[in-house]
Specification:
alpha/beta; six-stranded mixed β-sheet; Spo0b-associated Gtp-binding Protein, Chain: A; rod-shaped; five-stranded mixed β-sheet; single chain; about 25% strand; Rossmann fold
């Protein structure tokens, strides 16, 4: 099960209480106070882990707490600090305050750490209150509570390029041709039900680009038809959008109209997303009807860059790989 959004309750550890103690040893009648301070509570820490790719563990275990600090002890022994609670999150995860809707934190780089909630300070033992006029204090302070809150975890996949298209246009087949991903591909709509991310390798330069394949859109997706806009956030970070069109009109649709509909759906979701750099990938060019539809597309959408390919015949893929490298390295 692919989970890209969930709600969690997070709590940092409470500080340990200060200790009330007096030194009691033979031949030392005036030992005095020796109560130690409590230990600090553990923090809640976010760790960006490139080996994580979704949030299912937090859906099924929504409560996470750091360890409390240990109380102080006699002989001026300070209590041990509580262990931190480390949340391993996939790159691109955002934490949003559930009450205010404010973006609180975000992890994007593997290995990046963010202290989200700080543990409470430990309390003071009675040794901390001794003075020249109060040599036997009986005062201590309790440990302070740690910070806590309810947050939404939202995953926005980090990819250089994203595939957009109608169901059955060949997006999953294209992802399988270009990357090491092996998404499900079949001759019926909505075979892709969650986001797939693959890597495009360029052995000549050692470069690597990430390609995101999201479920197909349909007209009216902004009104929550089909799978709606649930997965479009996964291509918000992409530098390049690849509009994959069934240029053979297999399902009786016009590729030129499909392109207009896809642009409209992106504009409804986010004008920023619709304004990103884009390439049209004319798939299924091995079909005899594709040439006619391609000519009609170029007449209607003049100036829109089009790359004809065929995933079935594996033609045009080399040119597409070079175009992706050229566009994805540009500044968004």
């Amino acid at each position: 099960m692919f989970i890209d959004e969930t709600k969690v309750f997070l709590k940092a550890g409470k500080g340990g209480d200060g200790c009330l103690s007096f030194r009691r040893e033979k031949f030392l009648p005036k030992g005095g106070p020796d109560g130690g301070n409590g230990g600090r509570g553990g923090d809640v820490v976010l760790l960006c882990d490139e080996n994580e790719n979704e949030l299912s563990r937090y859906r099924f275990q929504p409560h996470w707490k750091a360890e409390n600090g240990r109380p102080g002890e006699g002989r001026n022994k300070q209590g041990a600090s509580g262990d931190d609670c480390v949340l391993r999150l996939p790159p691109g995860t955002q934490l949003v305050n559930a009450e205010t809707g404010e973006l609180v934190a975000e992890v994007t780089r593997p290995g990046e750490q963010v202290v989200l909630l700080k543990g409470g300070k430990g309390g003071l033992g009675n040794d901390a209150f001794k003075t020249s006029v109060n040599q036997a204090p009986r005062k201590t302070t309790p440990g302070r509570p740690g910070e806590e809150g309810i947050f939404h975890l939202v995953l926005k996949t980090i990819a250089d390029a994203g595939l957009v298209g109608f169901p059955n246009a060949g997006k999953s087949s294209l992802a399988g041709c270009l990357t090491n991903a092996r998404p499900k591909a079949a001759a019926y709509p909505f075979t892709t039900l969650h986001v797939n991310v693959g890597v495009i390798d360029y052995p000549d330069t050692g470069e690597r680009f990430f390609l995101a394949d999201i479920p197909g859109l349909i007209e009216g997706a902004h009104e929550n038809r089909g799978l709606g806009h649930e997965f479009l956030r996964h291509i918000e970070r992409c530098r390049l959008l690849l509009f994959v069109l069934d240029m053979a009109g297999t399902d009786g649709r016009s590729p030129a109209s499909d392109y207009s509909t896809l642009v409209s759906e992106l504009e409804h979701y986010s004008p920023v997303l619709a304004a990103k750099s884009r390439l049209v990938v004319a798939n299924k060019m091995d079909d005899p009807a594709a040439a006619k539809f391609l000519a009609a597309f170029k007449r209607k959408h003049r100036g829109v860059p089009v790359l004809p390919i065929s995933c079935h015949a594996r033609t045009g893929l080399s040119e597409l790989r070079q175009a992706i490298r050229s566009h994805a390295t540009r500044t968004p």
